[in-house]
Amino acid sequence: MPHLSSAVSAEILSGAATPAQALQLLQLPDEELFAGAERLRRAAFGTRISLCAIINARSGNCGMDCRFCAQSRHNDTPIDRFPLLDEGLLRQRILDLARWPVGHIGIVTSGGALQAEELASVLRVLAALPEAVRGRVCTSFGRLSPDALRSLARGGVRRFHHNLESSRAFYPRICSTQQWEQRRDTVRHVREAGLSACTGGLFGLGESWEDRIDLAFSLRELGVDSVPINFLHPHPQTPLADRPLLAANEALRIIAVFRHILPTTTLRVCGGRPETLGDRQPDIFRAGANALMTGDYLTTHGCAVERDCAMIAAAGLEVTAPCA
């Protein structure tokens, strides 16, 4: 049975390994890789699992040409399209999710960036929320300017979501209307604004293991706090509509490799979870995940919060209480 050398193991766990050394993780059989990932998860997070949920607050008509995305106007995908939600409706949807045992409530909008008047509308909604609820709100508004990000921080937002999607080398194969470096720079601006960065990627696009590991190291270099791990759920009438789903075991190994490279960072399993993992969803914790998105996704159905809480309890784990 393959084993990592003690020197490489120590370097990986200390954050000093190179991507080439981390590739040696792929030599490990499932049992050893998952056992190491679970030990790291328990060392950093104990039995605590955090939940988040999102609101699709503006849907479709995005000018970006991301090949996987149902919301791109370049892809004629049958989805609901609507402008930014009315302030009263957005506030009510936030309050509805605040009744769930979720630590983070994400407001997500399609498009390259939220416009100034739309940002002002969201800030009014935030100001009208109870303080305890406002502290749980996250935002995903695209490539915002440093000034706009600072305005969100002043408005009570603590976390901003902006994915890198894939490695720098692979990214041009999935999007031509935005550069990977622009995404990276947005994440840097997020952290400079004093916001927590929720930044991850999408797997199953045709990327290699080298791409996946390169992404993990980019996230480590950026110092992100939470890493959403998404699996491609091919949407009809997108360029990637015919791509097969990742095998469940490969998806779990992605989580486990990321846990070894990011031993103390929250790994949050999000989009594509039900389709890709099926009845192996409980294994995400054994593979090192300490968080997940519950409820529906942007344009597809997810899992009911009651079902996810039962899955967590059955694994001998507990949902982290929502942050105050």
TrEMBL record:
Involved pathway(s): Cofactor biosynthesis; biotin biosynthesis; biotin from 7,8-diaminononanoate: step 2/2
Ranges for domain Radical SAM core: 45-273
A Pfam entry, by short name: BATS
Amino acids binding [2Fe-2S] cluster: 138, 198, 268
Cofactor(s) required, per the database record: [2Fe-2S] cluster; [4Fe-4S] cluster
Cofactor binding comment, as recorded: Binds 1 [2Fe-2S] cluster. The cluster is coordinated with 3 cysteines and 1 arginine. Binds 1 [4Fe-4S] cluster. The cluster is coordinated with 3 cysteines and an exchangeable S-adenosyl-L-methionine.
First-level EC class: transferase
Reaction(s) the record says it catalyses: (4R,5S)-dethiobiotin + (sulfur carrier)-SH + 2 reduced [2Fe-2S]-[ferredoxin] + 2 S-adenosyl-L-methionine = (sulfur carrier)-H + biotin + 2 5'-deoxyadenosine + 2 L-methionine + 2 oxidized [2Fe-2S]-[ferredoxin]
Keyword Repressor on entry: no
Subunit structure of this chain's protein: Homodimer.
Protein family according to the UniProt entry: Belongs to the radical SAM superfamily. Biotin synthase family.
Function: Catalyzes the conversion of dethiobiotin (DTB) to biotin by the insertion of a sulfur atom into dethiobiotin via a radical-based mechanism.
HAMAP family named among the record's database cross-references: BioB
Stated name of the protein: Biotin synthase
UniProt source species: Candidatus Desulfovibrio intestinavium
